[in-house]
Write a structure and sequence with these properties.
With about 400 residues, the chain is of the alpha+beta class. The chain is about 30% helix and about 20% strand. The radius of gyration is 24 Å and the shape is elongated.
Length: about 400
């Protein structure tokens, strides 16, 4: 089934002198822009009244289009800002469904911490007794949601002893079917956060499935998984209660949904501070972090901190400046960081052990990058390049 398309009429602002209309269809291509979609750039970097068709499922791929960066534009909440690197000016702000682009700086990402209390068991036979959620952005709390839920079945005694939620408390509460619309509206397109988040998402997706609705498609972050990578050496366990006490979080979990969500939000902020030490400042870096931070050479991730998210070529050098490896990509930052996703063993591990510097060169497009990479390999003869294989992005071999 085709994904729904959203029409967006962009803000009208005075036209910037000397700039003609931009052909969005030619610049971006379908299905993100259709034939006849034009826009006039303005001094504010937005378009002058240009309706643009958007497929929400493809928005996250905008950033990978040649010369185009899609990111969050703080001047236009829930907007995607398109940037033409050749013109060095904004070429559009499109309304979107609220999902944050992968390259979004973390201080601009909207996170929604979600926690559910249940009757126990599995999503197929258990019920939800309480839902709590906290929306966060830039270190600030944007709002909270909390409600008891009638699970439609008995609450076992041990669960009541653990959570304090009794059958008398949930009897007048709405069923989950009456709660889901408000919860989905509250979450919107935010990145979902949870401690062992698969448990919470499992119950919510189960409730959606029983009502013939699609599961939540939001990106998600598991603070338990992140804590194991970033804090595991400092605590005896990564239980939420243990972490809250060990790091004196402002909120303490009580096995009640909103309390636990608030504590998880505090933990998220602590983890983001720790993650910055590995050069993690954008959403895609955060999502990739659990697979990177235990790498033996993870400390060298700092070398990627200033790499641009643009097409180009990169040289990996040793401490004497000799070129170890030449690579190319449509996204230099993502490509170089992907070297750290392995186990740290074998030939890739040896490359990272010798790595001391990353030397990037930005190109107009991937075709230019390919030509330059071939030239540099011929010039430097780096010993970690395979002479029998063309230089491609690691994910495209």
């Amino acid at each position: 089934m085709a994904q729904p398309r959203h029409q967006a009429a962009l803000a009208q602002q005075p036209q910037r002198p000397g700039l003609g209309p931009v052909d969005l269809h030619r610049l971006i291509g379908p299905p993100l822009a259709q034939e006849g979609d034009h826009a006039v750039p303005t001094g504010g970097g937005v378009l002058h009244h240009a309706p643009v068709a958007i497929d929400p499922q493809r928005l996250s791929h905008l950033r990978h289009a040649t010369n185009i960066r899609a990111g969050y534009d703080s001047r236009h909440p829930w907007g995607v800002h398109l940037f033409d690197y050749h013109r060095r000016m904004g070429v559009g702000t499109l309304e979107r469904d609220g999902t944050d682009g992968l390259g979004t700086p973390l201080h601009e990402v909207t996170f929604c911490v979600v926690d559910v209390e249940t009757t126990g068991g599995a999503p197929v036979d258990g019920g939800i007794t309480e839902v709590g959620a906290v929306k966060l952005r830039g270190g600030e709390r944007l709002g909270t949601l909390q409600t008891l839920v009638n699970p439609g079945l008995a609450i076992p005694g041990p669960i009541t002893a653990l959570t304090g939620i009794t059958e008398a408390m949930v009897r007048p509460a709405p069923a989950i079917g009456g709660v889901l619309p408000s919860l989905l509206e509250f979450v919107g397109g935010a990145v979902i956060v949870g401690h062992n988040v698969s448990y919470d998402l499992g119950f919510l997706d189960g409730a959606l499935a029983r009502r013939a609705r699609s599961p939540l498609g939001n990106r998600w972050v598991d603070t338990c998984r992140l804590a194991r990578r970033l804090l595991g050496d400092e605590v005896p366990s990564c239980r939420l209660s243990t972490l809250a006490e060990a790091f004196a979080l402002d909120h303490r979990p009580t096995h009640r949904a909103l309390d636990d969500a608030l504590a998880t939000g505090d933990l998220l902020h602590l983890l983001l501070e720790r993650a910055a030490g590995f050069g993690v400042f954008d959403l895609d870096d955060l999502l990739l972090l659990p697979s990177l931070v235990r790498h033996p050479q993870a400390a060298k991730l700092r070398l990627t901190r200033a790499l641009p998210r643009r097409p180009g070529v990169y040289l990996l050098r040793d401490r004497r400046g000799a070129v170890l490896y030449v690579g190319r990509s449509g996204d230099l930052r993502r490509e170089v960081r992907s070297h750290f996703a392995g186990t740290g063993r074998g030939r890739p591990g040896q490359l990272l052990r010798e790595l001391a510097a990353v030397d990037p060169t930005v190109c107009a497009d991937e075709a230019e990058a390919a030509a330059l990479a071939a030239e540099l390999i011929d010039r430097h003869r780096p010993r970690f390049n395979d002479p029998a294989r063309p230089v491609l992005g690691r994910g495209r071999r």
